[in-house]
Amino acid sequence: LPSFSLPLSLSSSSFARIFSYFPLFFPPLSFLPLPLSLLLVYYFTLSHLSLPTSLPPFLPPSLPPYLCRSASAEVRRERSRLQREVESLKEQLATRVANEKPASSGGEVTKMRTLERTSRTLKSDKAQLQEEIAGLREELAGKDKDVREAKAAYRESQDEITRITDKLNDTRAHKVKYSRLAREKEEEIGGFLDCGVFNFLLLFYILRFSLLDVYLYVCMHACRGKGEQD
Q1: Would you place residue 59 in the very low, low, confident or very high pLDDT band (cuts 50, 70, 90)?
Q2: Residue 79 DSSP symbol
Q3: Where are the transmembrane segments (predicted)?
């Protein structure tokens, strides 16, 4: 039998006072001695109680055993309920996905076709733009050639204008020179006429030639003077 020990703080008088009421609760054992009665009561009552060896981790170890057992049963019931709800939600999700899959696949096919048409349109636009760019480049090259030719013609015309300007300057210089020489000759002729040499020669020719010669000479002189004036 297991050993039984009382607390050390209890005195003999207290022990006698506590167990004096024992025959009232257990009348069949009143004829036995008190220690034997206590051993029999412990063996048939307390020794057969089975306490749990370990408590759940979510419960504090200070709870009574009956509370631990009830809490474990409640947790198991809640866990079973949550598992059933999870399975139900999974089935609903699978059903919804199965129902929505054809529509989504059809939408994806339509979207892919739209993207393919857009891609073909963009490719054709790109090819057309490339052709336009090539044409513009050729046109630009032709215009560039025309511009170079125009620049060359402009340089040639500038050179020709420069040559003509030089010739005009030379002509003006010669004109000024000839004008100065003409004025000098006019001044010489004017001085010659003023000094009476012309009159002397005319008198000499009158005396020497006949009147016909004088008339011819005068006419020739008049024609020469008129030509110089023109």
Answers
A1: very low
A2: H
A3: 20-44, 189-207
Name the CA dihedral angle for 138, 142, 148, 150, rounded to a multiple of 10 degrees.
Answer: -160
pTM of the model: 0.29
Spatial separation of the C-alpha atoms in residues 47 and 41, rounded to whole Å? 9
Residue range 120-133, pLDDT digits in tens: 888 888 888 889 89
Q: In the prediction, which pLDDT does 16 show?
A: 47
> DSSP code of 61?
T
- pLDDT at res. 115: 86
Q: Which residue has the tokens 């709870």?
A: 63
Report the SS3 class of residue 55: coil
Q: Give the separation between CA 106 and CA 87, rounded to whole angstroms.
A: 29
Task: Compute CA distances 185 → 3, 176, 193, 224, whole Å.
Answer: 176, 14, 12, 15
The tokens for 50 are 């089975």
Burial of 98 (0-12, 13-18, 19+ CB in 10 A): exposed
What is the separation of C-alpha 106 from the centre of its chain, rounded to a whole number of angstroms?
A: 34
Phi and psi angles of residue 168, each rounded to the nearest 5 degrees, phi first: -65, -40
Nearest to 20 by CA among 40, 45, 37: 37
